[in-house]
Amino acid sequence: MISRKTIIILGGGIGGVVCANRLAKKVGNKAEIILVDKSATHIYQPSFLRVLFGERGPEQIQKPLSSLERKGIEVVQDEILKIIPENKTVKTQNRDFKYDYLIISLGAELAPEKIPGLNQAGFNLYELRGIEKLRDELRIFSGGKIAVVISSLPFKCPAAPYEAAFLLDEYFRKRNIRDKVEIGVFTPESLPLPAVGPENGKIIKSMIESRNIKFNPELNLVSVAPDKKEIIFKENKIAKFDILIFVPPHQGEKAIRESGIGNEAGWIPVDKKTLQAKYENVFAIGDAAFIALASGKPLPKAGVFAHLEAEVAADNIANDIKGINLKKEYDGQGSCFLETGFGKAGFASGKFYAEPDPQIKIRRPARIWHLGKVLFEKYWFWKWF
Hints:
By secondary structure, this protein is α/β, with parallel strands linked by helices. The chain folds into 2 domains: 172 residues, 3-Layer(bba) Sandwich (FAD/NAD(P)-binding domain); 138 residues, FAD/NAD(P)-binding domain. 28% of the residues lie in helices and 30% in strands. The chain contains 9 helices and 25 strands. The chain has a 5-stranded parallel sheet, covered by helices on one side. The chain has a 5-stranded parallel sheet with strand order 11-18-12-13-14. It has a 3-stranded antiparallel sheet with strand order 6-7-8. Helix 5 links the parallel strand 12 and strand 13. It starts with a strand and ends with a helix.
């Protein structure tokens, strides 16, 4: 009798949830599938901005990971301490797991503490608690300077800070106080969304500026002075704010960094087609993975990539377990919505693995793309939970 294989999935975000579901469907009782996450809850982060502007309650964008157990997936809530690929072992706070296959989908660790004063002065755009606090602050805000600050590169969901700026413009116009509010985006980037190419970046920049949102490029954040309400950039450039909304520094998760299996920033280099790391039967997907493009830039960190990479990793593991000599490859396709407010969104899609540069097409804002993003949230929970 052939013994069942053990598949460990680390992380219950988009990539981990897709991977677990797909493996449960493809390998059935041929493998034990265990998903480990320190949280008991899956939070659908693409809906954060809907919470910010009161379209959704926080409870509406969450699901318990335990609901995956009815599909034959074991869910373990535990803190991951260390990954030891030489022994095919994962250590958590409460136990050790042995695996035959490992999928690392731990996402990115947010590290606002790396910038002095940042956490004390502003609202974290990438944390649900920060979103709820900002929502409440915006409701009583009557005018002044709002700074949307990208603290460092890379960061996940590259469209999110620009979507926030567009939606803030809409929000204050509907409150009839837009003429009392200054909105600015401050970023180390030369143009918005550099992964989509300079021509598309120029289009997005013109869209931003047409809404009276100031785009401040090539600014590297050094610190924030909460008492003075000042943002300090390199070369002693200073900007004032009344409300600071920030994208925090990102790094690889602590378990990856302390296991020595990632690069200097804690991201795990993988084969761009198979998502295989340098260790046997170890795959890294989504934000945790590092994939270098032909242009020299890394593949952006976004949910769409986690989703598609999860499908490839899951299919290759399933084929290996079933003895099927077939390798599925990720082709670098990707897409994302860009909310622009007033019931419209843009849509970017294309080939990120194209050489010498990604071939990305941006479709102008339209109601159909906004509706598509809204409906996708409903589809997501129906499909995977």
